[in-house]
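User: structure tokens for this one?
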Amino acid sequence: MFELLGWALLAGVVNALAGGGLFFTLPALLALGVPSTSAVATASVASWPGYVSAFWSIRRQLKKGPLAALTLIGLLGGTLGALALVQFDASSFNYLVPWLLLTVSLLYARQLLSKAGFEGPLVLRKAGWPLLLSGSFYGGFFGGGLGVLFMSITGQLRMGTNLQQHTIKLYLSMLASGATIVVYSLSGLVYWQGGLVLALGYLIGGQLGAKILKWIRPKLLAWSIVTFGIGLSVYYFMRFYM
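Assistant:
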């Protein structure tokens, strides 16, 4: 269990900075013999305290943001995604993971290279609703690389400053993860013994990651996210296709 706690600490930091913590905790759960669907559900539920602690540290960035709309998007998308996982076998979804990670990472890189930039006013345009709702659905269904996906979406929408986009990422991830708690608990998919250990690690790691987030340069952090996402996609291409 100490090893599981260590992976959760790392995952909490990674989730706060970039997203993708599930790719550390999911293999750890699978190594303990937890079935794939149950492992995804447990990792998702356990990540919630980390998102809460990370978001709380920088919540003031969304003081004048569209909180009501974002709340509806996060809860609705997360709930629908969790309900979808309960109905389907998550193991078959593994083969889509590297493609999704590579796609969102390249989209984010393209936005960073754009002369138009990736920052703008903190407003939610009509085009943002389906994109953010889809991201929240993905967060409830699987969630691997969710932070990279949300950063790509908010960058494409030029929704706020870089730090505000990170805050939106954490807020929507927190809501989507929170929505899965009810669905997965009622479905009996959560492995609570491992989940509580993961939750503690996520909580501490999320707080540490949020502190680092305030000091790191936005451009450096943005390119670190792209590199992290591409690296994860390569790893999972090798794991699932070779």
